Amino acid sequence: MEKLDSLKQAWGRVLFAHDKKDDEKGIVHLMPMTDEIRQQLEIANTKREQAMESMLNKPAPDFEMKDLQGKSWTLSKLRGKIVVLNFWFTSCAPCVQEIPQLNALVCRNENENVVFLALTFNNADQIKAFVKKHPFNFKLLPNSAETDKKYQVSLWPTSIVIDKAGYIKRIMNSSLQIEQEIESVINSL
To answer: By residue range, what is the domain housing residue 28?
Structure first.
C-alpha cells in the first residue's frame, strides 16, 4: 500500500488497467492519469453507457453456461423468475468489495423467485481458489467471455436485473449501495 501511495503522490491520480490475459497471471498495470487518457476514458465511457442504455427494456440475450458443479444455466429457461446477473472477476477490487452486500442480498431473497448468477471470464480453478478466501453466494459461472460480449460488458463489476418476462430492467456498475439498488429493483418487479 505504501508503494501505491507514493505513486499517487508522484503521479496524482493513478489508473489501474487489466486485461483478461494479465488477470490470469495476476498482473495489474498502473499508469498516471493524464489529460489524454482522461479524455479517451470519457469517450469510451460515453459509448459504453449508450450501448448499455440501449439494452434497457429489451429482451436479455440468451446464454447457456455451466456453474462450478457442472449444472447448466440457460437464461431462457429461467422465464418466470427475476434474474440478477453480476459480471465480475477475481482480481477486480470493486468486484470483491461488493461481494458481502451481494451475499446479504442472496440471503434475504433465498425464498423468493429470484436467481442470482455471477459470471466471470476467470476459469473454474481460479474461482475455486478465490472463493476459499472470499465466499460468494451467487451461482458462479466461469468462462463468461462470450456472454460478456453479448451483454456489452466492458466495465466490472456490472450488475443486470432481468424481469420475469426476460427483459433487462436495470444495469448498474460498481456502487457502494449495490445491495439497496438491486433490492429496490427486485421489489419493484
So the answer is: 2-52
